[in-house]
Each structure stands twice: as C-alpha cells, then as structure tokens.
C-alpha cells in the first residue's frame, strides 16, 4: 500500500506482459527494487523452497540470515511523486478525481440542491438583548390608558344608568371609562356611562334618555343605549342623528331580584353586536386632553371633596386615596359600590362642571354648549378654570385661569353638572 492507496484487486497473471513488467517494478514503501508478486506466486515459491523433487531425500531447510534494518530515508512529497511509476501516477490521479468529485457533489447538495421547506421560526425573545419583545400600545381615545391599537377601532358605547334608591348598587359603573352625572327630575340624579376599553357583561339598571346627555355623547360620537326618554330627548335623537340603540328584547333583559322599572340590564358585548347590525362603526371624535402620566402631589391640598347636588340622598362625597392616586366615592352618606364585586368606586379624575341649570316642566335642564367655570380634582389637588364646548358635536376643552390647557390623568373620569360654584367644597 502506498500512503493509504490500495493496489488494484486484480491478478498479475491476467495482465498483458508489458503491463505485468511495469507492475513488478512498483516501489512499495522504502523497499525499492522489490518485485511485486501476487499471493499465488508467493505461495508457490515458498512451496518450492520447502520441498524436494519426487524420489529424492528431504534436505535440511536453510534459514537465510536476517537483513540488517536500514534506516528509512525521509523524502519530500515532490520527490515521492517523482519516483512513482506511470501506473502509480494514473492510480493516484484516479483516486484524486474520485475524492474531488465526491466533495463537489456534497457541496452541491449542501448549498444548491432543493431542500425540504422549513418554515421560519420567530424567536420568542430578542436575540441581542435576551428580553421579551415589548408590547406595542397606544393611549385609549376614551381614557388615555395604554391599550392595544384595536381598542380605538371600537365604537364608544353610552348607557343610561339609573341612580334612584331602588337602583343601588348599580352594575357596570366600575368599568366605565367616563361617567356624566346630572339630575333627571325631582332631584334624582342619573348617570351616562361611556365604554370603549372594557366590555362588562352586566350593566344597569338601564333608564330613559334626557336632552343634555345627548350633547355630551355626541362629543364622543358614541352609540346610545337607553329605555325610552322624555319627548324632547326622543325628538332630538332623530333630529341630531344620534347612533341610537333603544331598548329591545334581544339586547336587554330584566332580572327577577328587582321590581320594574329598576330591573332592566344589558351588556357591552350585546350592545356592540346591536351597533354592528345597525352599521355603526368606529367612533370619530377628538379625545379629552390627557397627561402622559400621573403626578401625585407631595402634599395634597384637596383630600376631601363635597358636591351638594340636590338632597342628602344624592349629594356626593370623595376621599382622596394617595396610595392609588384616586378618589373614593360616596353618595347618600355611604360608599358607592359595585353590585357584583362590592368594590367602592374610585375615579382617577373628578370634574365639577358649573353650568346654568333650569326646569322644563318636571324635567331639569342644563346649558351644556358654551362655556363656564370648572373644578378639576386630580393628584390630590384642585385646579380651577373654564370648560368650553363649541357645539353639540364638539368635545369638552379645559383651560386654567391663565388660559393654558388643563390635561387630565389617564383613567376613569367622573363629570358632575352643578348649577353654581357654591355647591362645590373641598378641604386638605
């Protein structure tokens, strides 16, 4: 064997005489001049050496003296190749062609041959930082809280919620993004709750429409869920093309634990289905001006707030909670709680809208378009200034006494309409 190259598996006797002559001169290792013999010839030669002719006496075998071991000469690759016979060079060349061809085939299949499709796998983490990719959010159009962008594609849904003594505690106010509070009649207040970020499945009791609530909801391009209404309100719903969702049996239901009319309920998912069936899509409106983040005061100056709305059962009190930077709401001398969870309502922002208040028969009226004084409670302090609403479809804008815009904290915002500033009081 020559440096790992095996001799061809062919009998020398089968080769032509000229080729057999060359094969006999092949250099094997360092033993130059030794004749290559096939195994059959070697065996025959040994048999001749160890036997005698037929009829003669056996002779004693002579063992030749061992040849002294010669040191192997070190030769360069160039010299080794030079000493190869023509036959060896042909064999070496053929072996090299086989090796190169095999390598080329492997390279082709590795890089150019069609491979089975493997779908790309998106890494769960950022490979450079090793951190989970941060979610992409945007401020909610309604509350200013960070939400998925798809939330702002929803319509804003407004629901009229009763606040008589028989209607308490209510369901769904805890999840509302914005709440408007005003007197319906007889000193009894009523709420209009607006939803976009959340979808509570139990909201009520649902009651009737009033004209001034229409101007507020139009500023948010909201759909309007209600059960009937005053004659003026129902007329204006058609005149102003309000996105109306009046009471029906498919999207509203009555509960047995309360007596009518204080037992009508709905859900925001059902009202969204209702709106979609009527072709009401995304709400297009100018959001309330919101701050990027809350800025709680080091020393709160308005910890206790009181609104004298009408009577003891409907007057409102707030206590500032610095741990949550919110205002715990009470009415009628008791905590105002959620019907299901029992959680006390606690808006992030409390706003008193001072506006002219009057009567139309038994119904209370408010001048909601124009401007007036405003008290804004947030971060444990109060800012005074002005509110402005240029038209039915315009949203509310707030400025301080210097004319600079007042921005609201993100989160639930509670508006209360009051006839004069003397009905507002607060203490540190």
Task: Write structural notes for this entry.
- With 428 residues, the protein is an alpha+beta fold.
- The chain has 2 domains: 1-51 and 75-108, no CATH class; 156-428, YerB-like (YerB-like fold), CATH 3.50.90.
- The chain has 7 helices and 21 strands.
- The longest helix is centred in the N-terminal third of the chain and has 26 residues, at 86-111.
Summarize the structure in short:
This protein has helices at about 15-25, 40-50, 75-80, 85-110, 210-220, 230-240, 270-275; strands at about 140, 145, 155-160, 180-185, 190-195, 225, 245, 250-255, 265, 305, 315-320, 325-330, 335, 350-355, 355-360, 365, 370-380, 380-390, 395-400, 415-420, 425. It is an alpha+beta fold.
Observed structural traits:
428 residues; YerB-like fold; 5-stranded antiparallel β-sheet; 21 strands; elongated; disordered N terminus
Q: Quaternary arrangement of the chains shown?
A: single chain
The biggest sheet amounts to: 10 strands, mixed
Average the pLDDT over all residues and give the rounded result: 83
The count of β-strands is 21
Determine the number of helices (DSSP H or I, runs of at least 4 residues).
7
């Amino acid at each position: 064997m020559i440096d790992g190259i095996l001799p061809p598996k062919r009998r020398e006797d089968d080769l032509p005489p000229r080729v057999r002559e060359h094969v006999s001169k092949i250099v094997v290792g360092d033993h130059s001049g030794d004749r290559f013999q096939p195994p059959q010839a070697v065996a025959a030669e040994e048999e001749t050496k160890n036997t005698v002719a037929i009829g003669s006496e056996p002779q004693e075998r002579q063992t030749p003296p061992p040849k002294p071991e010669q040191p192997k000469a070190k030769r360069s690759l160039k010299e080794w190749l030079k000493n190869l016979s023509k036959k060896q060079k042909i064999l070496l060349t053929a072996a090299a062609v086989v090796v190169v061809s095999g390598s080329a085939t492997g390279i082709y299949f590795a890089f150019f041959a069609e491979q089975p499709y493997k779908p790309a796998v998106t890494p769960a983490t950022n490979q450079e930082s090793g951190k989970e990719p941060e979610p992409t959010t945007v401020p909610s159009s309604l509350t200013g809280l960070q939400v998925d962008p798809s939330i702002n594609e929803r319509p804003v849904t407004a629901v009229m919620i009763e606040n008589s003594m028989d209607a308490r505690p209510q369901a769904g106010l805890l999840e509302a993004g914005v709440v408007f509070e005003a007197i319906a009649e007889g000193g009894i207040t009523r709420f209009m709750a607006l939803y976009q970020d959340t979808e509570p499945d139990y909201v009520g009791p649902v009651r009737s429409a009033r004209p001034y609530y229409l101007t507020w909801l139009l500023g948010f391009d909201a759909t309007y869920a209600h059960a009937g209404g005053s004659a003026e309100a129902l007329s204006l719903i058609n005149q102003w093309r309000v996105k109306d969702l009046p009471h029906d049996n498919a999207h509203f239901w009555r509960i047995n634990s309360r007596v009518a009319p204080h037992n009508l309920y709905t859900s925001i998912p059902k009202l969204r289905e209702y709106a979609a069936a009527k072709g009401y899509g995304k709400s297009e409106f100018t959001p309330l001006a919101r701050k990027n983040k809350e800025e709680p005061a080091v020393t709160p100056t308005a910890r206790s707030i009181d609104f004298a709305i009408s009577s003891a059962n409907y007057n409102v009190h707030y206590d500032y909670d610095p741990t949550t930077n919110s205002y715990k709401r009470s009415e009628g001398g008791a905590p105002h709680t959620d019907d299901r969870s029992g959680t006390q309502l606690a808006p992030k922002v409390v706003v008193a809208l001072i506006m002219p208040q009057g009567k139309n028969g038994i119904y209370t009226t408010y001048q909601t378009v124009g401007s007036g004084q405003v008290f804004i409670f947030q971060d444990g302090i109060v800012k005074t200034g002005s509110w402005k609403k240029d038209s039915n479809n315009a949203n509310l804008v707030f400025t301080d006494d210097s004319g600079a815009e007042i921005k609201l904290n993100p989160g639930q915002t509670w508006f209360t309409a009051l006839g004069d500033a003397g009905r507002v009081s607060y203490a540190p």
